[in-house]
Write a structure and sequence with these properties.
Number of strands of chain B: 0
Number of helices of chain B: 8
Radius of gyration of chain A: 19 Å
Structural class of chain A: mainly alpha
Low-confidence stretches of chain A: 1-5
Largest sheet of chain A: none
Shape of chain B: flat
Largest interface: A-B, 108 and 94 residues
Structural class of chain B: mainly alpha
Strand content of chain A: under 5%
Low-confidence stretches of chain B: none
Oligomer: heterodimer
Mean pLDDT of chain A: 89
Order of helices and strands of chain A: HHHHHHH
Chain lengths: 191, 192
């Protein structure tokens, strides 16, 4: 499961590579692209390790804007500067947008067909599972965390309860729990 | 119910400005600002019907690609209401430009700064401290999506599908599109 971290690293070869890779990535993401992002970027392309993915994801999540878009801007920018960020962004948006407009035109005609409604429901159920599994796969990345596994689990559990059970607004949870966790990490890193 | 709009340059500018103003508030994704979009586009300006607003979000969620494209569909529908295909394309362009530009620029520069200063204790503490929280957030997101399934006693096939697909993705390297395809088929034939 963690083997991706130990194998040789790779990186995007060109702006075209970035554009194509992110187009392929985006087109696989039904109901959100995150689960695909971990699979493609870490396990298949090996552009980053699980640990790096979590670190980048933390930044992408805390910044305003769609986190998957933030992630692609960061990766594109890391390798090819502004042009890389734009190529990755274009890959993420261009083809999916055209496809979406096509679907929107078709949807008007088939929106009420039971088969279509059922298929969307089925894909939604699978997509929920994909996202949970991504979280489970990234969990081992915490082994090297300065906070220690016990504290990590405590923060993770609080975050889950606040967001999934109590349904508190995300911004408050991120700022509140995040501030405490980062302060603790800051003190641990000193030692 | 359809609406027909007379759209001037001033209205296009306001459409773009509205999304510009929401961009930096969208921590956790553009969808967190959807309530304010509804307030402005549907209630205040009357540029979209309720149905168009909801369909924009639903279609973008179901289609491949990043969910933020629901904003493009809103621009598209405003444009359609304002007079047709070219207006719709202009609506897509302006709404996406608005929602993307400020947050993307901020992320770009912040991540460059963070990478250049990655050895700083504060930067390392930020990444280490946030890691458990963002991982838990993923599991919470999956949970929230799954709880839209409804009552587990009655809708157990949907829950089962979610659990099985989570286990398969976690433990195997099966391609994700097979799983999504299987979910679509099961749903199409009314099995879940």
């Amino acid at each position: 499961m963690n083997s991706a971290s130990d194998e040789p690293r790779s990186q995007p070869q060109s702006l075209t590579d970035l554009f194509v890779s992110f187009t392929v990535l985006a087109l696989q993401g039904f109901g959100g692209v995150l689960a695909i992002a971990q699979r493609e970027l870490v396990e298949r392309k090996r552009w980053m390790t699980n640990e790096e993915f979590v670190e980048e994801w933390a930044v992408a999540q805390i910044m305003p804007g769609p986190n998957i878009i933030n992630l692609c801007i960061m990766i594109g920018g890391r390798h090819f500067g502004l042009r890389g960020a734009l190529a990755a962004l274009a890959g993420m948006l261009l083809v999916p947008l055209l496809l979406l407009l096509l679907i929107a035109l078709l949807y008007a005609q088939y929106a009420n067909q039971p088969g279509v409604i059922g298929a969307l429901r089925g894909m939604g159920a699978v997509a929920a599972g994909l996202i949970v599994a991504t979280g489970l796969k990234l969990f081992p990345a915490l082994k090297k965390n300065a906070l220690g596994m016990g504290v990590c689990i405590a923060f993770g559990a609080s975050c889950f309860v606040a967001v999934a059970i109590l349904r508190w607004p995300l911004a408050y949870v991120l700022l509140g729990l995040g501030l405490v966790a980062c302060t603790l990490a800051y003190r641990k890193l000193k030692a | 119910m359809n609406i027909v709009l007379q759209f001037g340059w001033n209205d296009w500018l306001q459409l773009c400005t509205h999304f510009l103003s929401l961009s930096l508030l969208a921590v956790g994704g553009a969808i967190t600002t959807a309530p304010d979009m509804h307030r402005y586009l549907v209630d205040q300006q009357g540029w979209l019907t309720d149905r168009q607003f909801n369909a924009s979000i639903a279609i973008a969620q179901a289609a491949p690609g990043p969910n933020v494209l629901f904003v493009a569909l809103m621009g598209w529908n405003v444009g359609l209401n304002a007079g047709g295909l070219w207006h719709a394309l202009l609506g897509v362009l302006l709404s996406m430009l608005g929602i993307m530009l400020p947050s993307s620029a901020l992320t770009y520069f912040a991540s460059r700064w963070g990478h250049a200063n990655r050895e700083l204790r504060a930067v390392r503490a930020f990444k280490q401290g946030m890691a458990p929280i963002v991982i838990a957030l993923l599991i919470a997101t999956g949970w929230i999506l799954a709880s839209a399934h409804g009552d587990p006693a009655h809708d157990w096939p949907l829950w089962l599908t979610t659990v099985v697909s989570a286990l398969l993705v976690w433990r195997t390297r099966l391609h994700l599109l097979w799983l999504l395809g299987a979910g679509a088929l099961l749903g199409w034939f009314g099995l879940i």
